[in-house]
What does this fold into?
Amino acid sequence: MKRGLRERIILLLPATILTAVVVVVPLTRVVYLSFTRVDASDGLRIQWAGAEPYFRSWQDGRFLSSLTNTVLFSGASVSLELLLGTSFALLLNRRFRARSFVRAAVLLPWALPTAVMGLGWAWIFNDQFGVANDLLMKARLIPTPIAWLAEPGPALVAITIADVWKTTPFVTLVVLAGLQGIPAEVLEAAEIDGAGPFQRFRLIVLPLLVPSLLVAALFRGIQAFSAFDIVYVMTGGGPGGSTETLSLYSFQNYFRYLDFGYGSTIAVQGALLLLLAASVVKLMTRRWEGG
Amino acid sequence: MRWSRVIPLLVIVLGGCRGVEHRRENGPPTISFLVLAGEREVWNEICQEFSSRHPGTRVSIVEGPNSTDLRESIYSASLLANDVSLDLVYMDVTWTSKFAGAGWLLPLDADFPESVQLQLVKAAVDAGRYRGHLFRIPVRTDTGVLYYRKDLLASAGIQPPRTFHDLEDAARTLQRPPELWGFLWQGSQYEGLVCFFLEVLSGFGGFWIDPDTLQVGLDRPEALGALQFLKSCRSGREAISPPGVTAFKEDESRRMFQDGRAVFLRNWPYVWRLAQETGSPVAGRIGVVPMVHAPGKRPAGTLGGWGFGVSRFSRHPEIAKKFIHFAISGDGQRILCGKTGYAPALLSAYKDPELLRANPFLSELERLQELAIARPVVPRYALVSDVLQRALSSALSGLKDPGPALSRAARETRLILRGENP
It folds into this structure.
């Protein structure tokens, strides 16, 4: 027994040390830094400031507006992705010619580096040379070009569209896996009982898909909430800070203002909010599985 | 646990690391710095020339991204980690207070005494001072200028503009939007917007931050006038700038002007050479004047430019300083500016016959350079600049009214300058 315990400890040790070094230590440091004030005018000096940085952030209009932007962006992009991803998954779940080719092709946007595709989308939404305006004008949907990335509302819409394009494949993949887990017998039985396609979807497919949808929403939510690269490349947070996300604001504090204290305060609060949201999803999953 | 096996393994792994370290030490002393990819070639030539004059030393160049902000972040991350791999910091004119303030740079007063400083463009040298010490030596300067289409103005019998009114009138007369717009500038929310605004503000007789008294002039009538001028450029039926100008950076505006789709362009001197290249639709059809101003006020161009600081963590600071001396020498400047068309930091280079042959624009640049105004060297400059960028951008995009946006920016700037948080 004693030997077993020792062996277990030895076997767990590498993983424990690795986790400690790459997760626990930096995490503790960020939490510590979030309670400090940094002065970078004469060497880097870090002073304990207690909860003051947190109070500062709650009165900081820029923090609050970047929080709003982040919530708007993640809410819009994740719900659109769930909607589109589920539709694509349902299509791809049917039998048709060249199905495996199409399934692979659908994944393509997801495989592209975000910064590269962000640059591409910035050109698409360019008001002078962009394809978006050209198509909309040819279709006579708009009379004059829209300056997509120069106006607060359209800029957020443009970023959301780019993000939806990129990450819908991920949702498709997760939901497709969920669909394949639904036994064909159940659907057949329903068909024999006289259930139409919509009834089958609403009463059988959708309820059985809920766990997959929750997983997809959770993963995508976490990613979207910490969105950085796509915003940095497409608008840099502009115009007028209307697309600045929490991660971007935190990054600006770290690297542009050398204010690690406040950057950490923002990062910690973002992480806490995510944790809260994730717990809610987890609770929902448990209730679903329990009921 | 077979420690007897693990320990030799550890020794090999760690020993291997030491070995790499050693090899670097044994080769010729090497200094290195990070530049944007586009400048690699010209710097390579300067480095080779330097190495041939100082045998036994090597200079290596690390290629970085084109975005200034990204390179600033790379340098910051490297210096934060006390990294020894970058000996020189190739700095934008606005980085001085941040890098010197953080204690990352060596003071250079002793190695570049007044006799050397006097040979360089004064405003550019001054931008490298922080709390009484010199931390950055300029190697090339920049100043905002106004480009115009000589052919279009001449055919309508219009003189190059001097005042804001002249500019608006000429633009309205000549433009045919959307094919040909009146006036292009940099309106995206970034440092370039601050540069352009500063020129307009100065043309209205106003100021941003007084470097001596630290007074803030953003809530004065001149600042409001300047911002309203910017706003009027792209609004209403009489707009002279495309609506998308508030997402433009230097190169978007340059491309559009070079495609022949605008009458006026505010930009940096680098545009001249590109616009005159064979194949450019506007080659031989452009002229340059200082930025326009209000009647009775002075024209101004924002000072830009690049220079070197020496990293505190460098293992070879002496070689690094020698390299800077070479870069600002006549020979160094001839390579740097002859190839690229950049404005030299060395005063005598403006009279250099070889450089003048390669770039006839140089004599005009010298005159324009005298109108240069510097951005303030204050601690937390990036934060101060971001406050202004957001105020300008939110007023231009209609999120806020110019008056409240500016008075809020003024209030926040005063707090930051006092060392408090906005």
Summary: Chain B has 18 helices and 13 strands. The longest strand of chain B covers residues 301-310. The two ends of chain B are 58 Å apart (CA to CA). Confidence is low (pLDDT under 50) at residues 8-23 of chain B.
